[in-house]
């Protein structure tokens, strides 16, 4: 008889074939697994952010599913949503309960792919009950491309010099440093904006979270505006836009990078 999915999954975990085990979990993600919570922004705006996605595995255990950048963008398209920006992730963290990260979850082979032990830790912390943050990372929207990760919030160190962020190509910030202007000053991040990975990379810590909003954001536009192209001579006025356009326009309610993002980077 052919192996059942449960038998395959348990075998993959037993032999440390985490890539194949993870693939099984990724196929189980549906819209019903997205538990949306409201996150307040400036100017009375808000976005809906789903909690880090977890699913029931073939063995009936609950797993937090690590994802690649490509999978994050694909799920965003599928669910008519967007990856988070760094500003929204910081606001999400501010409004949640802090949970400390728990280590590398790769003691046996140093691959960082032991998502099953990471899931055990998050389940023990009730990471699915309300907004909780600090123990995971995300692939975020950034001018650096589609493979920028951010996360692992931690209390601001007593010796900030030890954790000072390093500048790398494109002005992005490397591991360890303060967050954006909206992050509570009580917290820093181990990973501020990490550009080291490709679109197919995954490890245990990079989970799936998306955002959406029914809010209308106000942006001032005129005839020079490349997105709206109002007639020449039109007096600048306030135009109401959806979340996607708010990100592209770099509105301060949702964006905190120095440069605007290219629309081509969005899903």
Number of helices: 6
What fraction, in percent, of the residue positions are helical?
Answer: 10-25%
Mean pLDDT: 87
Please state the CA-atom Rg, rounded to the nearest Å: 20 Å
Number of domains: 1
Number of DSSP-assigned strands: 14
Which residue ranges are poorly predicted, with pLDDT under 50 across at least 5 consecutive positions? Answer: none
Structural class per helix/strand content?
A: alpha+beta
The main sheet comes to:
4 strands, antiparallel
Strand arrangement within the widest β-sheet reads: 1-2-12-5
**What proportion of the residues form beta strands (DSSP E)?**
15-25%
CA-to-CA gap between the ends? 42 Å
Shape: globular
Task: Describe the protein.
There is one protein chain. With 267 residues, this protein is of the alpha+beta class. It has one domain. It is 20% helix and 24% strand. It is built from 6 helices and 14 strands. The strands form 5 sheets. Strands 1-2-12-5 form a 4-stranded antiparallel sheet, sandwiched between helices. A hairpin with a 5-residue loop joins strand 1 and strand 2. The chain starts with a helix and ends in a 19-residue tail after the last helix.
Secondary structure topology:
Layout: H1 5-14, H2 18-26, E1 36-40, E2 46-50, E3 54-56, E4 62-64, H3 69-78, E5 82-83, H4 86-94, E6 97-98, H5 115-124, E7 132-133, E8 137-142, E9 145-155, E10 175-178, E11 187-194, E12 210-212, E13 217-221, E14 237-241, H6 243-248
Parallel strand pairs: 6-7
Antiparallel strand pairs: 1-2, 2-12, 3-4, 5-12, 8-9, 9-11, 10-11, 13-14
């Amino acid at each position: 008889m052919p192996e059942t999915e449960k038998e395959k999954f348990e075998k993959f975990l037993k032999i440390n074939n985490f890539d194949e085990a993870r693939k099984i979990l990724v196929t189980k993600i549906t819209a019903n697994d997205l538990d949306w919570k409201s996150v307040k922004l400036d100017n009375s705006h808000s976005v809906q952010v789903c909690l880090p996605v977890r699913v029931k595995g073939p063995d009936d255990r609950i797993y937090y599913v690590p994802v690649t950048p490509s999978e994050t963008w694909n799920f965003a398209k599928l669910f008519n949503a967007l990856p988070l920006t760094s500003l929204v992730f910081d606001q999400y963290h501010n409004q949640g309960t802090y949970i400390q990260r728990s280590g590398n979850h790769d003691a046996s082979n140093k691959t960082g792919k032991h998502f099953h032990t990471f899931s055990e830790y998050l389940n023990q912390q009730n990471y699915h009950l309300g907004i909780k943050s600090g123990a995971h990372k995300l692939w975020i929207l950034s001018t650096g491309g589609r493979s920028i990760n951010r996360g692992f919030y931690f209390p601001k160190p007593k010796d900030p010099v030890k954790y000072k962020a390093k500048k790398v190509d494109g002005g992005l910030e490397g591991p360890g440093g303060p967050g954006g202007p909206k992050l509570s000053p009580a917290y820093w991040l181990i990973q501020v904006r990490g550009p080291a990975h490709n679109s197919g990379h995954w490890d245990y810590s990079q989970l799936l979270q998306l955002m959406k909003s029914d809010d209308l954001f106000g942006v001032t536009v005129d005839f020079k505006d490349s997105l709206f192209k109002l007639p020449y001579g039109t007096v600048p006025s306030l135009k109401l836009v959806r979340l996607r356009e708010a990100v592209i326009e770099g509105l301060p309610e949702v964006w905190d990078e120095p440069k605007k993002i290219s629309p081509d980077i969005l899903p």
